[in-house]
Amino acid sequence: MTLEEVINEVLQNIRPTEEERAFVHSLMDELKEVARGTAEGLGLDVNPYFVGSTAKDTYLAGDHDFDLFLAFPIDTPIEELREKGLELGTAIAEKLDSYEIAYAEHPYVRARYKGVKVDLVPCYDVKDWKDVRTAVDRSILHTKWVNENLKGRNDEVRLLKRFLKGINAYGSEIYVRGFSGYLAEILVIKYGSFLEVLKNADFMLRQKVIDPGNWLRKEYETAMKTVKREAEEDRPLVVIDPVDPRRNVAANLSWEKFGRFYFKARGFIEGPSAEFFFPSERGIGNYLEELRRKGTHLLTLTFDKPNLIDDILLPQLERSARGFERALSREDFTVLGWDVGHSGGKAFIMLELDRLERERVRIKPGPEFFTERGWDFYRKNERVWLVGKRLYAEKKTDEHIVDILGKLLEKNQVAMGKGIREKVKRAEILLDYVPKELEKEAYLFLSREKWGLRE
């Protein structure tokens, strides 16, 4: 199939139908009226705004959650915004089907209505980047900017979003570190179309800085601070937010996820296929066969999943996995890779190791023999010898990884996420075996298919 044929086929699957559009518009009108009426009833001066993909008409067919922002006047004290915002969100949600309180920078309400999710988020009614006081305030400005600049290229954004989802590079959450929907919209506006974004993958990496709002002319000092800060952090891209020169829209984008996009973009252009957008479910191999093939070992720690949202839990699991990697390398084990996550109510840390046991003794280098420290070393060790001026000794060690791991944890010699440290210390340790619910994850990890670039 040609590029055009593949794109047309994909569009048939991702473009909302007229019936779906009518449903979305009707629901937005209804929710806005409920919000206005509830705010008036509580005596609150609040403007409701829809933000996100439904408000920009860049949502994919069948994927139309709603973000309804409840904008308070700029002079509202922050504590009042939090208190009254939660009160208003809850009052609105009580008129819908169901809801729960969630927490980010400040509390907000997650509701469901007529089969869709509705987030009710308090914010400030900002008109300019200098008014921004909380992390969510910019969303109103983002929606306005995209609607003013997209100019009918909504389907191009849909194609880019679906492509990024298909190659597993979509989502700016801290545990995904991919392209956000807003970043996808900016790139389409900047380069003109889905295909032009793909064709510019190499160019944007070399150019490094994308400034769709022309902030480097209008607010040079502020914008340059952003560029320098993000360049020092070694981000793959610096996309200065067109509504706020202080922010890099691509701040959460990792090198790994940009790298996936980089290779897959050229792959699609050279060999167009709907598989890039809708990859087939691949058969899962056997993780035990992977271990035999590689001659390596799998160490898995499992424990009850803490009551933490993924934005908090997964970074803590990652920090702990890196802590184990460093601690075990100090003990002469090679960690070939690690993976973290949760499944079936259990959190897990997987480590691929070169071996499960080490030598019974380690060679311990000492000081030069004619120093005071040399005498101390000589007295404390049994088998001692000289190589030139330096003393050496044999040190008996724990051989097995389980014993070593136990001592490392007992002595707090593993850096771990604060919120999960105690649970990790009591974790079940599994060697070359995982429970049934983790077999797929173990295979994807050991085979590297979870992150693989070539199928």
TrEMBL record:
Q: Which CDD domains match?
A: NT_2-5OAS_ClassI-CCAase (cd05400)
Q: What class of enzyme is it?
A: transferase
Name the positions where CTP binds: 53, 56, 142, 161, 170
Q: What is its EC number?
A: 2.7.7.72
Keyword list (alphabetical) reads: ATP-binding, Magnesium, Metal-binding, Nucleotide-binding, Nucleotidyltransferase, RNA repair, RNA-binding, Transferase, tRNA processing
- List the Gene3D superfamilies hit by this protein, alphabetically: Archaeal tRNA CCA-adding enzyme catalytic domain, Beta Polymerase, domain 2, CCA tRNA nucleotidyltransferase, domain 2, Poly(A) polymerase predicted RNA binding domain
Q: Which residues bind ATP?
A: 53, 56, 142, 161, 170
One GO term in the molecular function aspect is: tRNA binding
User: Its GO biological process terms?
Assistant: RNA repair; tRNA 3'-terminal CCA addition
Provide the tRNA nucleotidyltransferase substrate binding domain boundaries. 155-278
* Catalysed reactions, semicolon-separated: a tRNA precursor + 2 CTP + ATP = a tRNA with a 3' CCA end + 3 diphosphate; a tRNA with a 3' CCA end + 2 CTP + ATP = a tRNA with a 3' CCACCA end + 3 diphosphate
Q: Which cofactor does it need?
A: Mg(2+)
Residues binding Mg(2+) are 65, 67, 119
Function according to Swiss-Prot or TrEMBL: Catalyzes the addition and repair of the essential 3'-terminal CCA sequence in tRNAs without using a nucleic acid template. Adds these three nucleotides in the order of C, C, and A to the tRNA nucleotide-73, using CTP and ATP as substrates and producing inorganic pyrophosphate. tRNA 3'-terminal CCA addition is required both for tRNA processing and repair. Also involved in tRNA surveillance by mediating tandem CCA addition to generate a CCACCA at the 3' terminus of unstable tRNAs. While stable tRNAs receive only 3'-terminal CCA, unstable tRNAs are marked with CCACCA and rapidly degraded.
UniProt miscellaneous comment = A single active site specifically recognizes both ATP and CTP and is responsible for their addition.
State the oligomer form and interacting partners. Answer: Homodimer.
What family name appears in the similarity comment? Answer: Belongs to the tRNA nucleotidyltransferase/poly(A) polymerase family. Archaeal CCA-adding enzyme subfamily.
Protein name stated in the entry: CCA-adding enzyme
**Name of the gene this protein is made from:** cca
